[in-house]
Design goal:
single chain, Neuraminidase, 6-stranded mixed beta sheet, 4 helices, 27 strands, Conserved domain protein
Amino acid sequence: MYVGKRIVFLRTFYIFDCKTLMNMNIKHLGICGFMVSCLILSCTEKKKEMPIPDKVIEMDRVDGDMNEIIDTVMYLPLEKTEQSVLSRVNKLLSYDSLYFLADFNYSKIAVYTHTGKLKYVLNKRGHGRGEYLEIRNFTVHGDKLYTIDNFQSKINIYNKETGEYIESIATDIVASDIAAFGENEFLLTSIPNGQPQAKEQPENLVFLTDEDFQVKDAYFPYEKDYCEPLSRYSYFSTTDSSVIFSSFLYDGCAEMMKSNGHGIHTIQMSLKYPIPEGQRTKKESYDGSTAYAFVSQTPIACKHYWYVDVTKDRKLESFVYDTHEDKLYGNDESSMNKMAFIVGSDDRHFISYVPDKAYYDELVKYGLHRADSLTETSLAQGGSALVLYAVR
């Protein structure tokens, strides 16, 4: 059985009683972990037409257990310094044999080699040259690391190998996420949250820009009063040939192709009890007071697989969709090799983050793959680690 009694993991509360959480619903928790730090607003929604999808994925049809597609599970202990301590990892990118781990709460990015050695930490809050007031999101492209600072209306650019400041470029878009899109283009998403924008901008969710972040095109228009009551950590994820975009506007995503004239493929993730039309911008549709099902995050891609979290019956459930075979895999409740809380991927692995020993110990009881003795010792000494799920 793959649904109904799934373990409930909270991404942002690291020390907790998992057994207690399994018997609690989202209403009692307030909002489950991926919603922490989200802006909960009461919004007005006008009627919008759902785009005709190019593909429909039935999210209530589970074809097998994730163990069928997981080859191996290994841990990567991370070198620790005083600067590298993170409260959580909201987003992970792998680029040129480096892992970029972002903590948006601390507004810092810790950069590691694929062997776990710390390269540097981008931690420059302030008003001086090369400093920022926030890291709202980031991407890596070529030899540069790009971060969003909406408080100062700019994109900050650093050397990806060293973290050395290069320059800042002003932008008119209040951006929630950023992704490289071809050699000299970027995608920015701007998700309305009910607060007035600092600058006038078109009412679109996604913007195509040049390398100077001047808008070239815009996609996904919305009604003037539209807003989303929740905020995601990431709205983009990337594959070799596309950028995947998703928000709470629909249960599904759009795959934006990097070639072929920047074509867009729409994918609907069909759920048995979706949020009804006219309720998608209501906070009560997400806070657990109802039993609506909804897609909780933008899919994360690895090879031809997509990982996605869905809230069903007030529980957070994890799935992997095989885009080649059109099969959906879930976590068998009896498995001791569960995959959950994926924050990023590389060319072979889905990746999650273990911040400390207490978190690790609790999750092992309820399905997290046990680490090797070296990693357990590192965690016991105050370290952290990545969990790498190699897929077939």
